[in-house]
């Protein structure tokens, strides 16, 4: 059953990447609301699912496991700063390609760690998949903004390939639990950075209500399905 759940989540992510250009075509106000909503879902996912998984890693690393989350955030932030300030700026091909590579690696890690941490409940799996799918769609907006034609013709297929690689890795022999804990902690740091750097508009343009609806909606659904199970 779990393999079917993983496959379902993977298909949702593939659809999310393929639909990214269409989502980007929405009016700016609608797009900002959608990004805020997906950001709320993603924050709730990290807090209600990833952080408890990270807590399990204290068996091997103690409270130092949370430092891995911090390092994940710092590492992704450092890469982002380096890419933004690369000599190819503004919006050069090298910058686009570097960020595509980073985001592709991010997709591999998300799908791989999700396949190791999915609950054996189809309802929660679907909620997780839709939440992360929207998060991945919003993450693609930077690439669409940089070079929409290139992302539409090539970039989204790179992301689909990354999702498939993450799925394939997850089907191999499960690594040691300590490795799973380290990767999960790092992904949480990556995700926090992506959410607050890419998905949420500046406070002057913020759409707090969709963000709140996404977060509370995920929390309520998570609690109800968990209790029902």
Question: Topology of this structure?
Answer:
Elements: H1 2-18, H2 20-24, H3 28-56, H4 58-61, H5 65-84, H6 93-117, H7 122-146, H8 148-171, H9 177-199, H10 208-228
Helix pairs in contact: 1-7, 1-8, 3-7, 3-9, 3-10, 5-6, 5-9, 6-7, 6-8, 6-9, 7-8, 7-9, 7-10
Number of extended strands: 0
Determine the fraction of residues in helical runs and give it as a percent range: over 70%
Rg value: 17 Å
How many helices?
10
In percent, how much strand structure appears in the residues?
Answer: under 5%
Q: Note the overall shape.
A: globular
The average pLDDT score comes to 85
Unreliable spans = none
Structural class: mainly alpha
The biggest beta sheet is recorded as: none
How many distinct domains?
1
Account of the protein in words:
With 229 residues, the protein is an all-alpha fold. The chain is globular and about 45 Å long. It has one domain (2-228). The protein has helices at 2-18, 20-24, 28-56, 58-61, 65-84, 93-117, 122-146, 148-171, 177-199, 208-228. The longest helix is centred in the first third of the chain and has 29 residues, at 28-56. Helix 7 (122-146) runs antiparallel to helix 8, helix 7 (122-146) crosses helix 9 (177-199) and helix 7 packs antiparallel against helix 10. The two termini are 15 Å apart.
Structure at a glance:
This protein is mainly α and 229 residues long. Helices cover 84% and strands 0% of the residues.
């Amino acid at each position: 059953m779990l393999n079917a759940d993983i496959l379902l989540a993977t298909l949702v992510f593939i659809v999310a990447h393929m639909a990214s250009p269409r989502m980007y075509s929405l009016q700016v106000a609608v797009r900002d609301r959608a990004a805020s909503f997906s950001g709320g879902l993603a924050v709730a996912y990290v807090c209600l699912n990833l952080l408890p998984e990270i807590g399990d890693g204290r068996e091997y690393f103690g409270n130092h496991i949370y430092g891995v989350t911090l390092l994940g955030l710092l590492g992704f932030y450092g890469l982002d700063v380096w890419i933004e300030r690369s000599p190819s700026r503004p919006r050069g091909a090298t910058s686009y390609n570097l960020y595509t590579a980073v985001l592709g690696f991010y997709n591999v890690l998300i799908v791989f760690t999700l396949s190791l941490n999915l609950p054996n409940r189809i309802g929660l799996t679907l909620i997780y998949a839709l939440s992360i799918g929207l998060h991945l769609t919003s993450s693609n907006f930077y690439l669409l903004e940089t070079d929409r034609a290139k992302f539409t013709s090539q970039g989204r297929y790179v992301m689909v390939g990354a999702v498939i690689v993450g799925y394939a890795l997850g089907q191999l022999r499960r690594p040691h639990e300590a490795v799973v804990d380290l990767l999960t902690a790092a992904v949480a740091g990556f995700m926090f950075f992506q959410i607050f750097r890419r998905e949420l508009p500046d406070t002057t343009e913020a759409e707090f209500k969709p963000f709140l609806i996404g977060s509370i909606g995920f929390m309520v659904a998570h609690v109800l399905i968990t209790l029902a199970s």
